[in-house]
């Protein structure tokens, strides 16, 4: 019976067929231990010389790392095995004998591993991270789809950017200039006026010459927008989304979290209660009390975010930032116009901002004023139209997929969160 390693527990005591690859092997003379993988998981196959035809045992002797094989065997429960099961091998068919594999159990440098990323993703750790990535994506879609959101796909090629073109990738669009998008938000605002609650889910690009552990050149963003939504309601949706993601991963990825050595306790704290909220003012005071020379009106860097969030065991909202350091479209606080009705959600354990959101300006005259202040020209006149024809209070946010994965997995760098990372000075493979 053909099955997968993931479903092997359904066939205890039965002979099954696994189609996969040899991850590693070891031998103790008359017994060979094959570490098998098939994309759904890893399992050990035990080959006893006295219990298989001589040709089968000889085939196992010849196997090289990453050779593709079909393996038949009896499924046995084994508490010592990571998956809880082992395979008593009865037959092995060689599909392809692999060349000498460049990635071995020894330590390799990061550049070497990234040069061989197309092979590195086969390793247990990288496979687990990519599986968690897929489950996080599933959880995000499930939550948004289940709460009345409609997916809308904004353009990747745009004529300009209301946030400036300094960090955008330029290309030619026939006889016009065009740029790869760094956000679909403005288009999502238009879609929200048609569909109520919407979200985009796609790649974004930043030509930012940064080498920090939090930055990628190409990354994925989820950007929900909601008509008739306030700043408070916006934060409630964000909190619900993050808690849903974490709950789903804790339930569905136990083996993967174990494979990457992720302690689940900090993640369990995330779903234990509501997220704390502090104002930008209070965050500045906290930093100053901790010895940081941090003036009011500056934006937080990674060390400041780490300092702020280490006082909490779950993500924390920092809200009401100074208007001058935030995007032009954020709604001013009516009680204090120098700050905006917006918030950043900072992840614990030093991972910093994973979500940025705000209530958007819905007043036409105020938005025109912001356009004049930033000298936007005519490229986004259509955005002004949204305030001319049925404008309503509305809000939204953006969540960075790779930063969220890095936090949930407890990774040191976002380069492991995406199958083929695009970094400063790295476009291969």
Describe the structure.
The chain is an alpha+beta fold and 429 residues long. It folds into two domains: 8-96, Nucleic acid-binding proteins (OB fold (Dihydrolipoamide Acetyltransferase, E2P)), CATH 2.40.50; 117-416, Bira Bifunctional Protein, Domain 2 (BirA Bifunctional Protein, domain 2), CATH 3.30.930. Helices cover 30% and strands 27% of the residues. It contains 13 helices and 18 strands. The strands form four sheets. It has an eight-stranded mixed beta sheet. The protein has a five-stranded mixed beta barrel with strand order 1-2-3-5-4. β4 and β5 form a beta hairpin. α4 packs across α6 and α4 (124-146) crosses α13 (401-409). The radius of gyration is 26 Å and the shape is elongated. 34% of the residues are buried.
Question: In a few lines, what is going on in this structure?
Answer:
With 429 residues, the chain is an alpha+beta fold. It contains 13 helices and 18 strands. The mean pLDDT is 96.
């Amino acid at each position: 019976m053909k099955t997968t390693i993931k479903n092997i527990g359904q066939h205890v005591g039965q002979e099954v067929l696994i189609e996969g690859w040899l991850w590693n092997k070891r031998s103790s003379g008359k017994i060979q231990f094959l570490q098998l993988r098939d994309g759904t998981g890893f399992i050990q196959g035990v080959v006893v010389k006295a219990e298989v035809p001589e040709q089968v045992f000889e085939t196992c002797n010849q196997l090289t790392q990453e050779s593709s094989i079909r393996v038949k065997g009896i499924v046995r429960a084994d508490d010592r095995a990571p998956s809880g099961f082992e395979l008593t091998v009865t037959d092995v068919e060689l599909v392809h004998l692999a060349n000498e594999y460049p990635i071995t159990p020894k330590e390799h440098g990061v550049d070497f591993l990234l040069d061989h990323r197309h092979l590195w993703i086969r390793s247990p750790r990288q496979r687990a991270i990519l599986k968690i990535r897929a489950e996080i994506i599933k959880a995000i879609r499930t939550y948004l789809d289940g709460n009345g959101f409609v997916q809308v796909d904004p353009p990747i090629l745009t004529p300009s950017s209301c946030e400036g073109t300094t960090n955008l990738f330029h290309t030619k669009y026939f006889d016009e200039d065009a740029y790869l998008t760094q956000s679909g938000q403005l288009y999502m605002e238009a879609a929200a006026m048609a569909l109520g609650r919407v979200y985009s889910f796609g790649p974004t690009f930043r030509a930012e010459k940064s080498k920090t552990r939090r930055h990628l050149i190409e990354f994925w963003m989820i950007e929900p927008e909601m008509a008739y939504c306030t700043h408070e309601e916006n934060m409630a949706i964000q909190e619900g989304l993050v808690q849903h993601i974490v709950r789903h991963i804790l339930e569905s990825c136990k083996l993967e979290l174990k494979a990457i050595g992720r302690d689940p306790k900090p993640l369990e704290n995330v779903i234990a209660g509501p997220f704390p909220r502090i104002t930008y003012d209070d965050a500045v005071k906290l930093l100053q009390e901790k010895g940081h020379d941090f003036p009011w009106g500056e934006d937080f860097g990674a060390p400041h975010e780490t300092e702020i969030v280490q006082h909490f065991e779950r993500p924390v909202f920092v809200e009401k930032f100074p208007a001058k350091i935030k995007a032009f479209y954020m709604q001013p606080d009516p009680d204090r116009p120098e700050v905006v009705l917006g918030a950043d959600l900072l992840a614990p354990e030093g991972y910093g901002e994973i979500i940025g959101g705000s209530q958007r300006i819905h007043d036409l005259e105020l938005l025109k004023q912001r356009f004049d202040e930033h000298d936007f020209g005519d490229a986004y006149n259509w955005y002004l139209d949204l305030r001319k024809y049925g404008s309503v209070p509305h809000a939204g946010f953006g969540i960075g997929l790779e930063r969220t994965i890095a936090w949930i997995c407890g990774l040191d760098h976002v380069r492991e969160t995406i199958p083929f990372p695009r970094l400063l000075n790295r476009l291969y493979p």
